[in-house]
Every structure is written in structure tokens, then in C-alpha cells.
Amino acid sequence: MTLTVEERAKVLVEALPYIKRFHGQIVVIKVGGNAIEKAKDQTLLDVVLLRYVGMQPVLVHGGGPEITAMSERLGLTAEFKNGLRITDEKTMEVVKMVLTGKVSPELVASLNRLGGQAVGMSGEDGPSIIAEPLSADMGFVGKVVQVNSEPITALLGRGYVPVIASIGLGYDGHAYNINADTVAAEIAVALGAAKLILLTDVPGVQGAGGGVVAVMSKDDAQRRIETGEVTGGMIPKLQACLRSLDRVPLAHIIDGRVPHALLLELFTEAGIGTMVTP
């Protein structure tokens, strides 16, 4: 469908209240995996546009599929528990190699090519993310115990888009693999973001009937986790949303495979995916 000049102008005017509302605000966006690969340029172009209309996007990324593929190439078997990758010493080496050596540089290069100014970093830089072991049976899987926001806000203050790999530094000096949704939530809380947006490869949180739940309260989300209605990789996503609501007004789980999903969520009344509210 081709829009007339008048229709295009109408679309821009309809977006104006949202542009005004979020001008100067920080929005933390988690990207990665299948969600970003299906509509990569459109998603990153959205991020560049957000920066130019006065918002301050922060990208947090994982790289699950790439880590699994590289692990298999090296003869390592991927094991998961509650949606999290069990990470031994060798797997941690793969995680660092993939996230900081491949995924992050590719995202930064793409953002710069599309007209943005991006800088890649991991939680070890600064260090911006202090971690400790999640549990003894998960190996070098970490949980965030502290976020040092200064390196991130310094980049934002200079007009850059921070692209942050989900790796933390332990008090023991070891790197820890942290779920990217969890990292995004902790960073959103530390920065006092206006929104947390998690891009995934499903339309949103599915209800018992199979349809997407458009709006979900904090209590409802907790109930769905406790009753087992939400399973697998959606568990850490919902838990990340719940954590962010301690300080962030709204959290969203949206389908990153949809072209320009970020613009649809931020600049339209209907939005897409699942919105989690306090």
C-alpha cells in the first residue's frame, strides 16, 4: 500500500504527542538472537530515528543462537535450565568471543552505517555491571548485584547509542554470562528509563487460550509464572519486566520480527505485543 503525501503527513502528526512525551527520555531496548535477525536493519533504523527525535536509546544484546552455533562447532553441548544457559569455563570463553567479538561489533557497525553514532561495551567495561554467581549448578551464569551507570550516561551525554553485551564482572575477577533480559531490566532501573522494551521472536506473552495478552498487570504476570502458564525463555523476560517496574513506568515484550516494531510500540496508540504495568 502506497500512502499519499497527505497520509504520510498525518502519520507524522499522530506521532507528535509520543515524540514530545519521550523527548530526552532513556529507553532501554533488548535486542538479539532471532528477534533481531528477522528485521535487523528496520529495527536498528528505528533506533537511529529515536536518537534523532531526541530520545536516548540504550541497546542491550544477547546472542543465544550465535553462541549455540559456535559451541556446536567447537564440540560443546548447550544445556539449559529455566531458559538460562549453563555456562562452564569453555562455554564462557565462547560467550565472550561471540558477544564482544561478533555480535556487538556488527550491531555497532550497522548503527553507524545507518547514520547513528554507536559505541560497543560489555558489563566488564567500567565495570558497568558487577555480578555474582546465580547458583552453583549453573557455572559462570551470573546475577547482577550492582550497575555502575556512569560509563553509560557518559556515552549518552555525548550523543552516542551504547550497545551493551550482557556480560558482568564478578568480585572474583571472572566474567559472568548474564541473561540479556535481566541485564536490560537492571540497566533500565539504574538509569531511571522511561520504558523497557524486550524484542523477542514471538508476538508476545500467550494466554491460556493461545492469544497474545495485550496488557498484563504486575500481579497477573507473577501469577502466570507461579502457575506454570509461562514457561521456558519467556520466564526470564517476564521476570525482567517485573524487576524493571520497581522504577520504570512500563515494560513491553514485543515481536522483533515485525518491521519497525519499535516505532509501532512507541509512536502508536495501539502498540503491539504485551505491555506489563505496575
Structural class: alpha/beta
Q: How are strands sequenced across the largest beta sheet?
A: 5-8-2-1-11-13-14-12
Are there runs of 5+ residues with pLDDT below 50, and where? Answer: none
What is the CATH architecture assignment?
3-Layer(aba) Sandwich
Distance between the termini: 38 Å
Kindly identify the CATH topology: Carbamate kinase
Taken as a percent bin, the fraction of beta residues is 15-25%
Report the mean per-residue pLDDT as an integer: 91
Give the biggest sheet: 8 strands, mixed
- Our Rg estimate from Cα atoms comes to 18 Å
Helix and strand sequence: HEHHEHEEHEEEHEEEHEEHHEHE
What is the CATH superfamily? Acetylglutamate kinase-like
Reading off the top of the CATH hierarchy, the class is best stated as: Alpha Beta
Features:
single chain; 278 residues; alpha/beta; Carbamate kinase; four-stranded mixed beta sheet; 10 helices; 14 strands
Verbal overview:
With 278 residues, the protein is an alpha/beta fold. It has one domain (15-273): Acetylglutamate kinase-like (Carbamate kinase, 3-Layer(aba) Sandwich). It is 42% helix and 23% strand. The protein is built from ten helices and 14 strands. It has an eight-stranded mixed sheet with strand order 5-8-2-1-11-13-14-12, with helices on both faces. A four-stranded mixed sheet has the order 7-6-9-10, with helices on both faces. A hairpin with a 4-residue loop joins β9 and β10 (175-177). α4 crosses α5, α7 (180-191) packs parallel to α9 (234-244) and α8 runs antiparallel to α9 (234-244).
